[in-house]
Design a protein that fits this description.
By secondary structure, the chain is of the alpha+beta class. The protein has a domain at 32-174: Phosphorylase Kinase, domain 1 (2-Layer Sandwich). The protein has helices at 44-51, 62-67, 75-86, 127-143, 180-183, 189-208, 237-243, 254-257, 273-293, 307-327, 372-375, 406-432, 434-442, 450-458, 460-463, 465-476, 481-502, 513-537, and strands at 37-39, 57-58, 90-95, 102-109, 114-120, 152-156, 169-173, 178-179, 216-219, 227-228, 246-249, 336-338, 348-350, 358-361, 369-371, 507-508. Keywords: Coiled coil, Mitochondrion, Transit peptide. It comes from Aspergillus flavus. Pfam families: APH (PF01636).
């Protein structure tokens, strides 16, 4: 039975808005410079903008979304602490473009120095865990694996008695080099290929280190219920003492910790892939049960579910748990591995003189160890949506290229360039990081439903029961081809329209809000009709 809608292979997928609403989040990296909010004397009205989310709007449930991103802190205390750390006066603070989970601030120091501050929003998870995990991760990467990441100057959790800021925060050095997004358009193909080699070498270091469990990194003295992070004997002698300071504790993975998921309780750590994926399925069951009784008032009817659908959905997840031991990959593909999940142009800095060399990788908040087969993916900086020839096949220009118009030829050349870069990454990884590619190979069979189901289960509470039921049907081979395809077609129509109208949670930029709301209002009846059709098929 063919699948007509392929889910994003990640637990934290954000469907792109295409066709009806377009937006770009590329500029949300915390180090991108812009005409931001700058404060020197801190009037209350301006200071409040530091606490609020100001980078976009939501089409529904906006009050709740904004409250999850509102965090107050003592601005003067933050500036005073930065002054103590650098030994010079802080003379200004600039709010940088914010992501969905953090406030990012640039603190200008007398004499031209600068300190960067990150303050997690409430929706990022428990602030003490989020900050202590990020600090420990940066320390481990920098001092155990020799991976270029920002240097932490100071940090504190909100529960610390010596924290006058009143919120969790991290102070770090501004990284050297230039943001890749600033120079990408000027790079030759040869330079981009050189950059691929640099990133593959960093990923090789991550994949080759064997972690003892699935969860997130912490300092040993701050996390009692934990495992030693690594078997130190796999490291050079000079690195073993540094590695002994770290443990694997409960995960800060977004799907376990963000928003209402903070209340689910069980966050590991886990020893095996089976334990971890069982916890994922049970988490989704809890979320579905909670949503049945605690829906936001202004969630559109088109994304609500009936009680019958909820009960069926829970039973499907229980079937997945029963099936899990029989469908898991085996061997090294299940080993716990730490990977960066968002390697886009704004999160990579390159050497100013030689852009093939990576000077720093930023934004390691909420990274976690997980089975390698779930972590293995193309970095977004080298990924693309063009049809991709997997394996030894080289991308080529279209057969009818000579008959295309000049504009079509230009588009075809750009697509070919993207595919060549992606192919070079694949081949470089096959040579220098073969374990990663072996895991990716195992998940590339589009005719095997198990190549989708592990990812789909992790987002099942938001995606609904139909795609999960389709894949389970294929695995059990209990249903006929016609019915399964009918589900897939219906789900594809519903999901495409929902993603175009609402994205993941209704977010749009400030500039697009009025137009987006008008479009949503004009199409919401269509979305409701498609939702009802899905329920009938379920």
């Amino acid at each position: 039975m063919g699948i007509l809608h392929r889910p994003f292979k990640t637990f934290n997928h954000f469907p792109n808005r295409q066709g009806i609403i377009k937006r770009s989040v590329l500029g949300q990296g915390i180090f991108r410079r812009f005409a931001g909010l700058t404060i020197t004397h801190e009037p209350n009205a301006t200071r409040n903008n530091l606490f609020c989310y100001t980078s976009g709007r939501w089409l529904y449930d906006e009050h709740s979304q904004l409250s999850r991103r509102y965090v107050e802190f003592n601005v003067q205390a933050l500036q005073a602490h930065a002054s103590r750390v650098l030994g010079t006066k802080c003379i200004g603070i600039t709010k940088l473009p914010e992501g969905l989970y953090n406030k990012a601030l640039s603190l200008e120091m007398e004499g031209g120095g600068e300190v960067l501050a990150r303050i997690p929003n409430p929706n990022a998870g428990h602030p003490e865990l989020v900050v202590s995990n990020e600090v420990a991760t940066l320390d481990f990467l920098r001092n155990v694996l020799d991976i270029p990441v920002p240097k932490v100057l100071a940090w504190s959790s909100p529960s610390s008695e010596s924290n006058p800021v009143g919120a969790a925060y991290i102070l770090m050095e501004r990284v050297n080099g230039r943001q890749l997004s600033e120079v990408w358009a000027t790079l030759s193909e040869k330079q981009r290929f050189g950059l691929v080699k640099s990133l593959v070498e960093i990923e090789r270091k991550l994949v080759n280190i064997f972690f003892t469990g699935i969860g997130s990194l912490y300092y040993k003295d701050a996390c009692p219920n934990s495992y030693d992070a690594v078997d130190k004997t796999q490291l050079p002698i000079l690195k073993q003492e540094a590695a002994s300071r770290f443990v694997i504790g409960q995960t800060t993975e977004r799907s376990f910790c963000a928003d209402e998921r903070q209340e689910q309780g069980v966050r590991g750590p886990w020893r095996t892939a089976e334990e971890y994926l069982t916890a994922v399925a049970r988490r989704e069951i809890s979320l579905i049960q909670k949503c049945a009784t605690h829906r936001p008032q202004d969630v559109p009817a088109a994304v609500r579910r009936t009680q019958g659908a909820i009960n069926n959905h829970i039973e499907l997840l229980k079937k997945f748990i029963t099936l899990l031991p029989y469908i898991l990959p085996t061997g090294e593909a299940t080993r716990p591995t730490l990977m960066h999940h968002d390697l886009h142009l704004d999160n990579i800095f390159v050497d100013s003189a030689d852009p093939t060399k990576i000077s720093s990788i930023i934004d390691w908040q909420a990274v976690y160890t997980a089975p390698l087969f779930l972590q293995a993916r193309f970095p977004s900086v080298f990924d693309c949506d063009d049809p991709y020839p997997w394996g030894a096949v080289q991308p080529e220009l279209p057969d009818d290229f000579d008959n295309l118009s000049p504009m079509e030829k230009e588009l075809a050349r750009k697509a070919h360039d993207r595919l060549r870069l992606k192919k070079f990454y694949e081949l470089a990884s096959r040579k220098f990081n073969p374990l990663l590619m072996k895991a990716m190979d195992a998940m590339q069979d589009d005719d095997d439903p198990t190549s989708y189901i592990f990812y789909l289960v992790g987002q099942s509470s938001s995606d609904g029961l139909v795609p999960l039921r389709e894949l389970l049907v294929q695995i059990y081979e209990k249903e006929g081809r016609r019915q399964g395809e009918e589900w897939a077609v219906a789900f594809n129509e519903y999901e495409n329209l929902r993603a175009q109208l609402l994205g993941k949670d209704g977010w749009v930029s400030n500039e697009e809000y009025d137009e987006a709301m008008q479009i949503y209002q004009s199409h919401k009846d269509d979305l409701e009709a498609l939702r009802r059709r899905l329920e009938q098929l379920s």
